[in-house]
Amino acid sequence: MSLAARVRSEFVASWHSFLRRRTAVFFTFFFPAIIVVIFGALVQTQPTGGGLFAEPKEYYIAGYLAVVVLFTPLSRVGSTIARHREGSRFEKLATTPLSRAEWLLAHSLVNVVVIGLAALLLLALSALVTGASIPLTPATLAIVPFVALGVTLFCGLGAVIGSVADSQDGVIAASNAIALPLLFLSETFVTPDLLPAWFVPALNLSPLTYFARGVRALTYSGGDWVTNLAVLAALAVAFFAAGTVAIPRTD
Amino acid sequence: MDEVLAADGLRKSYGDVEALSGVSLSVAEGEVFGLIGPNGAGKTTLVRALTGTTAVDSGSAAILGRDPTEVDRQRLGVLPQEFRPAGRLTARELVAYYAGLYDDARDPDAVLDEVGLADAADTWYENLSGGQQRRACIALTLVNDPDVLFLDEPTTGIDPAGRRSLWGLVEGLAAGGTTVFLTSHSMEEIERLADRVGLLNAGELVTVGRPDDLVTEYGGESRLVVRTDGDADADAALESVSLPAALDATVSGDDITVHGVGPRDIGDVVAAFDDAGVVYESLVWKQPGLEEVYLSLTGEQFEAARPAAAAAVGGDR
């Protein structure tokens, strides 16, 4: 009971802090919108041609969702940790009953809500702007745990980055350096057949691959999404644990 | 009384810099322990070592008989020196946030009222003045009604009225049995609040004692500073004065400092100057305090306070 109260308190404080940073709120939701507009409306898919965006538009819905699931928690949690450290907030929190796991859980939940809303916006825009049709079946609801687990996973990674980087600038640079390769090498926008055969097995090393494969199975191709969800869940637990350990406890 | 805080041979280095060089101390229940020392002396490192927020190289610390990392956090209140909470939460939200981290917490509004922030409860932290921000930080440190309170330079940036208000607050907490570990650069604050004082210099706890005892031992003597008319020769003026026996004086610029002047000697000394016809602009009687103890034991600015070039008259000093 007290654990829930502590997480709730941290969640509420973090949620209010986020909502009051108007620039952060605007760009958090502008980001998925601009992604859909650029790739869905300007570039457009070319089903009859080759190269990038040669697949049907529904193929890329998983990629659009992957963008927000990857980038937003990575940079938000990373820079939150840098801000906390610079303000001696972890030093203070270390002397309260709030544990590091509870702190990360609360911030992961905030990100799940924020990115969940962004994902809804993104799905709606995908349908409106690109005309993509998303199957509406009970199984489609499984997108929710995919988003929640993906966000949790990258919150954990963001915590590791935020703890290792020595400043907010460092967090942003490190997040970009990690997120960009992950985004394009995880079966999101670049199909495996565009990559050298020797590299294709490496796609399995990216946690985002299991998110993209699972969500694509739900929104486009059908097939086994449960296995991908299970792998993503296991990875989310592992990254969350790593993030918990990495969060600073001392100076 | 029971021992609430204990440190035994704490050592901590940052690279080549030794922040703590074997510090040992003990603080009893209900005691206000004041820690003074120059910037970089290791005060904040000692607070962190005692609260378990830094890992020491050797030695041990205990709060309420337990390792600092294992103590019941409900009983602990810590205000880090450079603490900056979330800027876009109101003072009330901030205190409520920290209250929510404890099983048993006080009413946030009551705590805000206690630190004098009731009128600014709905103002974002980043829009509070510096002094108000520090008060908000103190409020969220008190919200769990701690048994042991660490305040690392709590009144930095607070105006004199606010400072006195917070001193009253700390006095009230101490009277209620709260053990307080306080660091400060304000000797006035430490003299008023601390039951015992420790002076940390270059990582070493140079001395520990009751403020009065430290002043008696290290503070030197009381003195009367006579500022002569700028047109007069202070050395010549002093030559003409017949000081009471056992008193001696030094000259620095226009100032004649008569050493060892107790409260009952003041009249005689002033009469001696008047009898000699010395024209003076001001008379200031100074009692030794913690500041003199600090200057004496750290060597900081002490030479500036009593220039080496000052002429000694009436005996060796």
From TrEMBL, chain A:
<keyword id="KW-0812">Transmembrane</keyword>
<keyword id="KW-0472">Membrane</keyword>
<feature type="transmembrane region" description="Helical">
    <location>
        <begin position="103"/>
        <end position="129"/>
    </location>
</feature>
<feature type="transmembrane region" description="Helical">
    <location>
        <begin position="195"/>
        <end position="213"/>
    </location>
</feature>
<feature type="transmembrane region" description="Helical">
    <location>
        <begin position="63"/>
        <end position="82"/>
    </location>
</feature>
<dbReference type="InterPro" id="IPR047817">
    <property type="entry name" value="ABC2_TM_bact-type"/>
</dbReference>
<feature type="transmembrane region" description="Helical">
    <location>
        <begin position="171"/>
        <end position="189"/>
    </location>
</feature>
<feature type="transmembrane region" description="Helical">
    <location>
        <begin position="225"/>
        <end position="247"/>
    </location>
</feature>
<feature type="transmembrane region" description="Helical">
    <location>
        <begin position="141"/>
        <end position="164"/>
    </location>
</feature>
<dbReference type="GO" id="GO:0043190">
    <property type="term" value="C:ATP-binding cassette (ABC) transporter complex"/>
</dbReference>
<dbReference type="InterPro" id="IPR000412">
    <property type="entry name" value="ABC_2_transport"/>
</dbReference>
<keyword id="KW-1133">Transmembrane helix</keyword>
<dbReference type="GO" id="GO:0140359">
    <property type="term" value="F:ABC-type transporter activity"/>
</dbReference>
<feature type="transmembrane region" description="Helical">
    <location>
        <begin position="24"/>
        <end position="43"/>
    </location>
</feature>
<feature type="domain" description="ABC transmembrane type-2">
    <location>
        <begin position="23"/>
        <end position="250"/>
    </location>
</feature>
<protein>
    <submittedName>
        <fullName>ABC transporter permease</fullName>
    </submittedName>
</protein>
<dbReference type="Pfam" id="PF01061">
    <property type="entry name" value="ABC2_membrane"/>
</dbReference>
<dbReference type="InterPro" id="IPR051784">
    <property type="entry name" value="Nod_factor_ABC_transporter"/>
</dbReference>
<dbReference type="InterPro" id="IPR013525">
    <property type="entry name" value="ABC2_TM"/>
</dbReference>
From TrEMBL, chain B:
<dbReference type="GO" id="GO:0016887">
    <property type="term" value="F:ATP hydrolysis activity"/>
</dbReference>
<dbReference type="InterPro" id="IPR027417">
    <property type="entry name" value="P-loop_NTPase"/>
</dbReference>
<comment type="similarity">
    <text>Belongs to the ABC transporter superfamily.</text>
</comment>
<keyword id="KW-0067">ATP-binding</keyword>
<dbReference type="InterPro" id="IPR003439">
    <property type="entry name" value="ABC_transporter-like_ATP-bd"/>
</dbReference>
<dbReference type="InterPro" id="IPR003593">
    <property type="entry name" value="AAA+_ATPase"/>
</dbReference>
<feature type="domain" description="ABC transporter">
    <location>
        <begin position="5"/>
        <end position="227"/>
    </location>
</feature>
<keyword id="KW-0547">Nucleotide-binding</keyword>
<keyword id="KW-0813">Transport</keyword>
<dbReference type="GO" id="GO:0005524">
    <property type="term" value="F:ATP binding"/>
</dbReference>
<dbReference type="InterPro" id="IPR050763">
    <property type="entry name" value="ABC_transporter_ATP-binding"/>
</dbReference>
<protein>
    <submittedName>
        <fullName>ABC transporter ATP-binding protein</fullName>
    </submittedName>
</protein>
<dbReference type="InterPro" id="IPR017871">
    <property type="entry name" value="ABC_transporter-like_CS"/>
</dbReference>
<dbReference type="Pfam" id="PF00005">
    <property type="entry name" value="ABC_tran"/>
</dbReference>
